[in-house]
Amino acid sequence: MKIEILGAGCPKCKELEGNARKAVSELNIKADILKVTDMGKIIEYGVMSTPALAINGKVKSSGRIPGVEEIKKMLK
Fold it and tell me: Is 28 among the catalytic positions?
């Protein structure tokens, strides 16, 4: 599984990354969590508001920080 955190590295992006890591840990699944800071790549995803969360190449959340429980539902 590939999880991407899309954003410039702001505090909200870091919070989203932390929530994603916690969700993966609690579900005990294997996932690569990558930070995407290249604005060209972020725009390729169609994201206009960061932070955004993409799972296996599909944007699941944009412009907000989903909580750990919400991310766990996305991952199932």
Answer: no
